Amino acid sequence: MNAVEVVAAGFLLLGAGFFTAGTVGLVRFPDPHTQLHALTKADNLGLGLVTIGLALASASPWIAAKLLLIWGLALAAATTAAHLIADHLDRAGRG
């Protein structure tokens, strides 16, 4: 393994750790707002780290650019979904 592959593997493992932390936050936190916060923040960072690791391991810059675009779109979708869920919880009186 060369140095780039080692760094890429480190990013992938770190990203998996953030995914695990987000899942633990979802299960352990008491109310829906803190669960939502833990899940979206940790998962967005985890996806970013996994994306960076995959981009480093990819064969071409075009693939890396597509991966980063996917991450950006996932960030926008997660932000919108979290806002809609929190707004619904507030309107339902569960917030």
Topology:
Layout: H1 3-28, H2 32-57, H3 61-91
Helix pairs in contact: 1-2, 2-3
The number of helical elements comes to 3
Largest sheet features: none
What is the alpha-carbon Rg in Å?
16 Å
Low-confidence stretches: none
The termini sit apart by 50 Å
Strand content bin:
under 5%
Helix content: over 70%
> What's the number of structural domains?
1
Q: What is the approximate shape?
A: elongated
Helices and strands, in order, run as HHH
Supply the helix-strand structural class. mainly alpha
How many beta strands in the DSSP annotation?
Answer: 0
Report what the structure shows.
The protein is 87% helix and 0% strand. It has 95 residues and is mainly alpha-helical. It has 3 helices and no strands. It has one domain. It is elongated and about 55 Å long.
Sum this structure up briefly.
The longest helix has 31 residues, at 61-91. This protein is elongated.
Give the key terms.
95 residues; 3 helices
